[in-house]
Write a structure and sequence with these properties.
It comes from Priestia iocasae. Residues 5-167 form the Glycosyltransferase 2-like domain. By secondary structure, the protein is α/β, with parallel strands linked by helices. It has two domains: 3-206 and 297-304, Spore Coat Polysaccharide Biosynthesis Protein SpsA, Chain A (Alpha-Beta Complex); 224-294, no CATH class. 51% of the residues lie in helices and 16% in strands. The chain has an eight-stranded mixed beta sheet with strand order 7-5-6-4-1-2-3-8, sandwiched between helices. The radius of gyration is 25 Å and the shape is elongated. It binds uridine-5'-diphosphate and magnesium ion (MG).
Length: 305
């Protein structure tokens, strides 16, 4: 019999882990496979770990890994994937925003031969502003990155062993799963589901962390921002030359022209801004190189079962 591993990152999910487990159990019976649960406690400060210990005592198919502190969802995903022993894995959130009822049909597609079965949510019930902003972000990011990133496609998906091993071969420190999933390719199938609101607790995303996440998406997949810097540099230099030429011609035709305060100040401010912006971009890349070269572990385990 084949084995299915369910990987669930949890950060402060004391209110949801039990509900998740009960809900998931209902549907696991429908799958003709041995199921193992791998919960990753990403350094929760509440009673998540206690709940997981209890679950693991009751049910031998429940395993957990507990981090020494909060390392972020990407690290939790990586740990779960590394510890999964199944022929396929499902990555799913603990807050039931990813309905476990989809897992049996994901499994069916896996049996049909798909390597990635992706669950895509529509955005019904979400705030208008957030919907619009995400929409814009995806339009923008797809212009910038080499891989295609689709709106509504999150981390909820099934991966075959082959796809999973491919993913694990990418050992980079700065992980941007959305991009990595798309980068590996393989035979993909997308299924849709209705947007679910979180059952308990709150989302861990603040506007700032979303912004940072967006930045990661752009910067961790290619060097287009650096290209943009080069082209803007060329453009600005070109206009600079033209301006100098015009000024010179003026000088020979009409003599010295004194007022120049406004043009000088605007040039300083504008060019200063552009230079800082691109220095920042270069800095981001250097920072990434810095983190990669340190080769630090992506997470530290405090306890596991
Ligand atoms: N999560 C995690 N580490 C973190 C933040 C979140 O493991 O640092 C988990 C969280 O417990 C949940 C999933 O990642 O199972 C998605 O988090 P959340 O619901 O906050 O994000 P959203 O659904 O709003 O995108
Ligand atoms: Mg959520």
């Amino acid at each position: 019999m084949k084995k299915l591993s369910i990987v669930i990152p949890c950060y402060n999910e004391e209110q949801t882990v039990n509900k998740f487990y009960e809900e998931a159990q209902k549907f696991m019976k429908l799958i003709p496979a041995v199921v193992e649960y791998i919960f990753i406690d990403d350094g929760s400060r509440d009673k998540t770990l206690e709940q997981l210990r209890k679950l693991a005592d009751q049910d031998s198919s429940v395993h957990y890994i507990s981090f020494s502190r909060n390392f972020g969802k990407e690290a939790a995903i990586l740990a779960g994937f590394q510890y999964a022993s199944g022929d396929a894995v499902v990555l799913i959130d603990a807050d039931l925003q990813h309905p476990p009822s989809l897992i049996p049909s994901m499994w069916e597609y896996y049996e049909e031969g798909y390597d990635q079965v992706i669950a895509k949510r529509n955005r019904i019930g979400e705030k208008f502003v957030r919907r619009k902003l995400t929409n814009l972000y995806y339009k923008f990011i797809n212009r910038l990155v080499d891989v295609t990133i689709t709106d509504g496609v999150g981390d909820f998906r099934l991966l075959s062993r082959q796809a999973l091993d491919a993913l694990l071969k990418m050992t980079e420190y700065n992980r941007f799963s959305k991009g990595l999933f798309s980068w590996i390719g393989f035979h993909e199938k997308t299924i849709e589901y209705d947007n679910q609101l979180r059952i308990e607790g709150t989302s861990k995303w603040s506007f700032g962390s979303l912004l940072n996440y967006g930045m990661d998406g752009i910067l961790s997949f290619n060097n287009k921002p650096l290209r943009i810097a080069i082209y803007s540099g060329m453009g600005i230099t070109f206009f600079g030359f033209i301006y100098i030429l015009i000024t010179l011609i003026n000088y020979f035709l009409h003599g010295v022209e004194t007022p120049g305060y406004f043009t000088t100040i605007s040039a300083i401010i504008l060019l200063g801004g552009i230079q800082l912006l691109f220095l920042g971009i270069i800095g981001e890349y250097i920072g990434r190189i810095y983190y990669e070269t340190k080769r630090r572990p992506q997470y530290l385990i405090k306890e596991k079962k």
